[in-house]
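It is worth pausing here to work through a concrete case rather than discussing structure prediction in the abstract. The textbook approach is simple: state the sequence, then state the predicted structure, then interpret. We follow exactly that order.
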Amino acid sequence: MLRRMNEFAGLVIGLGLLGAGCGSGDDDDANGNTTAAFTLSSPAFEDGETLPLEYTCDGKDFPFSGMPPVDHTSPELSWTAGPAGTQSYAIVFKDVTLVTGNPPDERGYHWAIWNIPASVRSLPKQLASGNPITGVAGAKQYSDPLFNDGYIGPCPSWGVAPGSPLLDTDPPPAVKTDSYTFTVFALPTATFTEPAMRPAPPASDPPISWVKDIDNALIDQAIGTAVLDTTSNAQPAAFAVPPAAP
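Step two, the predicted structure:
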């Protein structure tokens, strides 16, 4: 997801969720994988529905570099067994509006978790941030240090929040609704081969995200995927502004 982005500017993100999809398999294997459709769901919302505010930046400050990490509440996610041969799972959450824009914006890659054992078919609400991950032995996650590498919820309307540096622009920012996806990947290996991190770009260049590289590698390696779609127009309670230098 976010690749240790460029300080304050790098946190200007439009956050989001995933949708429903399917995969195929054969007879049951040792991990219980079947020929049934591979699907992803959440008790918090239906595929295509607006993500409840609880799972967004709503009510929280929009962080800046140097402040304590911010924890966002992730929704509970459940999936059916992957195709035959599935040895582990991974999940990526991204803002489709941003990553498919013109030009694409890598800040839309919010969060990735991988090396989820094949025997695990769900993640709890409010999954712990940081690594190692409490309750999911062997799994690893990545987002941004300002979120302690945990889930980052949608925040597409950050620009209209009190304190936003965009409020004095002409025209002023408006409330924005973005589309998001959660995607679960079924993988043929117990350990995902992580892509190398790209060198950080100059501060004047657009920020980059390791989550994008992880997403691309997962697409290449997966033997099945399922998607859960959502939307959000969430905005933070206030735009946290770094304190003035003494």
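Step three, interpretation. The helical segments are 96-99, 210-221. The chain has a mean pLDDT of 85.
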